Amino acid sequence: MPRPLGRRRFPRFEIHIPFLYTGSAPMSIATGVGWTRSLSQGGATVELSERLRPRTPIQLHLRAPRGIAEAEAEVIWSGGRAREGGGLVHGLFFTMIAPDHMQALRDACHPLVIMRHAGVRLPLEIPVTCRSRNSEGSQLQGRTGNVNRGGLFLLLPRLLPPGTPLEVTLHTPEDPLTVDGSVVWVEPPEIWSPGESIGHGLQFHAPSWSALASLGLLLVKLS
Asked: pTM of the full predicted structure?
């Protein structure tokens, strides 16, 4: 059975992970997608596509680094839109969490996880097509390795130097998702292997909230 949570104070960490949310009965909220801004075992600050009133109960399916964490929550407050095209900011209090999902939430909030994995990268392996903004018509086929809200780890068949601007189309099981970004780092030559792909770090160029919501939905569905 889910375990009710008292209003204790828990350490809160800046961590960006996506989630799906639905309204608890008798509410009639359609299923939506959001991203956390900060997270603890007792609650979260999140960005949503729609504004929810305080005291609205919702059910969450969070894409934690080690699996899905499900929780029941209540909206405590709502604010304005986050900067750089983000969603509408809300504060949530977790009211109940099933015991078998509590560990996934603890792992997501653990300080060592935050320090070891900057930005909390989530595994994602799907094909991509990359087009360089510096070279008309030039395309590369590759794959993603992992992703976070700020960028992608790309595996490409040849080297693209840092600073290269790219249009990347992720070939998802449903509709393609296109994002813009720039290469910010490349794996060092000493770890390259003949015939194998080269790892690149891509940083997004201020993605729209629509793109972030689509990326979040993809990550939750493929978990």
From this structure: 0.86
